[in-house]
Amino acid sequence: MVHLILYYLVLVLAMPAISFADSRIVKCDDSKTATIFIRPNFGTVINFPVKPDKVLLGSAKQFAVEYIKNDIALTALNSHANTNMFVYLFGRRCGFLLTTSAGRYDSIVKVRDPDENKIKVNINE
User: For residue 87, is pLDDT > 90?
Assistant: First the structure.
């Protein structure tokens, strides 16, 4: 019984270090770069609300990129791949830092507009 309790405690304490999340939401902010963690030998999908107008990858030799409708699918070409990526949409620029990580990784990243939940109010003077 003691072994079962110790096993449970180790499992619960280790959970924050393990990434079980299927998806994560990041905001498209012109002034900030969002980090995307890509697991070696696995793909990561970045989903946008609309089809990106243009994508600029810092180093095409670090990651394989495939465009599928509103998604960008990325695969690391080596286990130490790192580069930046800029995606243009909404008439604005979204910046990303792509880095490989065996511990923490993203399967699906949903990119959202930070202003999408704000209500626009017309003020007539």
Answer: yes
Instruction: Tell me the CATH number of domain 21-112, given options 1.10.1740.10, 2.60.40.1550, 3.40.50.720, 2.60.120.40.
Output: 2.60.40.1550
For the chain, give the mean pLDDT.
Answer: 82
**pLDDT number for residue 112:** 92
CA angle 78/82/115 to nearest 5° reads 130
Integer-rounded Cα Rg, in Å, for the chain is 18
Q: Burial, 100: exposed, middle or buried (Cβ in 10 Å; 0-12, 13-18, 19+)?
A: buried
pLDDT at res. 90: 78
